[in-house]
Design brief:
By secondary structure, the chain is an alpha/beta fold. 23% of the residues lie in helices and 31% in strands. The protein starts with a strand and ends with a helix. Bound molecules: NADP nicotinamide-adenine-dinucleotide phosphate.
């Protein structure tokens, strides 16, 4: 499984249930990585998408504890158990966690690769992910040249689970 996220320098990822910045090159990067794949998100992130609908050209899996929740074009799962039952149907390399904070923080440890668009700015977030640089199970394996858009400079970083992380991840059973 993989995770894809845009974070500011404080690991902030959102404000008022929306994104922190409008970065067309990052949106393109997100599309290129996720189209044709399986995306996993929380109910609040789904509701922040255009029309509150699943993303086109992707299999959308949405977590909500509400048994009555439905959304067009989405598979709804109601617990971690149901989520893993559903995810077992797919190739883990094709699965991407796409937010929000509750999903990233709970499940990133299940990911082999973390695609992080790191914005060199403090964007006054109210939703955060953990500081991946402080997680000894992951190491930075690539970093793009900086890109500047709408006054924000950002880089595309890729982290991979290291050997110790892989050993620990085996106890996660996925
Ligand atoms: N920067 C980025 O790349 C990026 C990407 C995506 C989102 N975001 C941002 O992240 C923020 C939203 O994050 P968030 O943490 O508030 O919301 P979220 O993770 O999108 O959704 C939270 C909801 O997911 C459901 N959920 C989570 N864990 C569950 C579990 N174990 N079992 C059943 N349901 C579960 C619950 O829905 P119910 O309440 O229906 O039970 C919960 O209220 C927004 O600001 C958004 O813009 C940023």
């Amino acid at each position: 499984m993989n995770m894809i996220v845009a974070a500011d320098r404080n690991w902030g990822i959102g404000r008022n249930n929306g994104l922190l910045a409008d970065l067309p090159t990052d949106m393109k990067y997100f599309r290129e990585h996720t189209q044709g794949k399986i995306v996993v998100m929380g109910r609040k992130t789904l509701e922040s998408l255009p029309g509150g609908k699943g993303l086109p050209k992707r299999t959308n899996i949405v977590l909500s504890a509400n048994p009555d929740f439905e959304a067009e074009g989405c598979i709804i799962v109601h617990s971690e158990y149901e989520l893993f039952d559903e995810l077992a149907k797919y190739d883990p390399d094709n699965i991407f966690l796409i937010g929000g904070a509750s999903i990233y923080n709970r499940f990133y440890k299940y990911c082999r690769r973390l695609f992080i668009t790191k914005m060199d700015a403090d964007l006054n977030a109210d939703a955060f992910i953990v500081n991946i640089d402080e997680d000894e199970d992951y190491r930075l394996i690539s970093e793009s040249e900086p890109v500047t858009e709408n006054g924000i400079t950002f880089r595309f970083l890729v982290y991979a689970r290291n050997f110790e992380g892989m050993i620990r991840a085996r106890t996660l059973n996925f």
